[in-house]
Amino acid sequence: MWIASLLALQTLAALGGLEPTALAGHPDVVITPSEVMFVEARHSETVIRGRPWVPHKRIATIAGGTRLAVRGTVESRDSSGCKGKPWYAVRPFGFVCSEHVKTSASPPDPGLAGPPLSGRRLPHSYAIVRSDGVAEYASVADVRAGIIRRELTKSMSMVVRRSVDVDGASYIETQHGALVPREGVGWMGEGSTWQGVALDGLAIGPAFAWTTDEKTVVRAEARAEAAKVRTLGRRERVALLEGSSEVRPQWWRIAEGEWIAADDLNEVIVVEPPPGVLDDERVRTTGNDQWIDVDVGEQVLVAYRGGVPVFATLIASGRSSPTPLGNYPIWAKVASMDMANQDYEDKPYMVQGVPWVLLFQGHNALHGAYWHDRFGNRRSHGCVNLAPLDARWMFDWVGPSMPAGWTGYLPLSLERSPVVHVRDSHRADGLQFTQERPIGPPDPEVERRRVEQAERRREAEATVLPGDDPLWPEPSDAR
After folding, report:
1. Burial class (CB in 10 A: 0-12, 13-18, 19+), 335
2. Hey, what's the torsion of the CAs at 117, 121, 125, 131, to 10 degrees?
3. Are 381 and 90 in contact (CB under 8 A)?
4. What integer best gives the mean pLDDT of the chain?
5. Domains of the chain (ranges plus CATH)?
6. Residue 197 and residue 238: Cα distance in Å, rounded?
7. pTM above threshold 0.70
C-alpha cells in the first residue's frame, strides 16, 4: 500500500538515524550528572538526535507528553540548534534539546510503543466510509457554514477520536480533528483474529502448512480422482510428511492415506539464510541476527534469528501491485501512520492509523491490516499485510524496541538493519528471487518524475476531442 504521509519520514531518512549500539560510548560528548531525573516532551512531535547538536542525525520521534529518563546533561556547543541551552542524554538512547522538554516528577510510562487499546487487538477505533461523496469538514464552524473540505470515497477508513453533536446532528471526529457525518460511516471491528505460531527446533525443509480454503478436500491418494476422505476448514494446520515429487510437489501427504493438493495449502518451508540477509559486520556490531523470509508464492512469512526459525504466519502481499522481490533492510519503524494514494495515482483511497509499520522498500511495508481477513491470499497494494496480532508481534520483535510514546525510529545505516527477504517459490522461470527494486526509502527524484508523468498523461487525456484516439501512450520512465 502506498503511503501519503511520508514527508517527515523521508526527511528523517535523509538525515539518517543512529543505532542504539553505536550510542554506548560518546568519545566526542561529555555527559555530566544531572539533578533532573525525568523530562516530558512539550510538542506533538519531539526529535531525539544521535548527538547533542544541530544539525546531527535524528534517531527517533516521540509524541507530546512522552516522559524520558535522563542519563545526564551535555552543554550546548551550537547557538542555533538548542538556542545555547543544554541537552539531555536520555534512555534508552539519544539526546533531546532541553528547550523541547520540561522537567517531570514521574518516570516514563512502562511498555512499548503503540499499545493496543485495553482488551482489544488494535490501537485505535476505526470507521469506514459507506459511499462516495460523504462530506468531511475541518471544524464545527465549517459544519455550520456548510463549507466542505473534501468529499470522501467509499471504503476509506479513519481513526475515530470521539463522537460530536453539532446542532442536534451526530458527527465523528477523526484523529486529525476533521468531522464526518455519523450516518456516512460504519464502525469497523478489531480486525482478524488470526495469529501465527512460535517455532522451536524445526529443521531445514518442509515444516507444516495451513489449509487455504473453507472446505479443503483430503483425498485417499495423490490424485484429483481419488476418493475423498474428509474436509478441513480454512487455516487448519497440517503436517507435510511426504511430497508427491522432489521438485515442488503437487500433492502432500498429511497422514496415513491422506493427501491434499499443494494448491490448497500455504506451505511453511524452513530455509538456510540466503546470501545478503546476515551481514557479518551487522551481527558483530549490533548483536542483531534477525531477518524475515517472505514467500509471496505461499503467502507465508517466517522470522529467523540466524539460521533458527522463531515465528511463522500467513500474510497478504501485493495483488494489483506485486510486492517486489529482493533483499530489503528495514529503513523505518512507525507505530501508526496514515496511508493513501500518491499524487501520481488516479484512484483515491485513504486508510488512517495503520498500525505497527516496518518500512522495508520505498512505500512498501510490513504492517497491520484491520480492514480484511484474507491472510494467506494476495490482497494488498504492494505491502505485506499482517493480521493485527501478528503485526504487533513483528513490530515488537524487530530491534530495536521502541518505548511507550516513541512514534518512529530510523537506523544509522541500512547495513545494520534487519533484512526482509522477499521471494516467490512458485515462479517457474528460475527467478524465484531477484533484486527488483533499490533498497531504502522512496527516491524523491523518482517520485517527482512520476508526478510529472501523471500530470502530462492527465492533461493529454483531458484534451481528447470527440473522434480522437483516446489511447495515449504512457510516458517513459527513463530520462
Report:
1. buried
2. 180
3. no
4. 90
5. 31-104 (2.30.30.40), 125-187 (2.30.30), 196-204+271-463 (2.40.440.10), 205-264 (2.30.30.40)
6. 13
7. yes
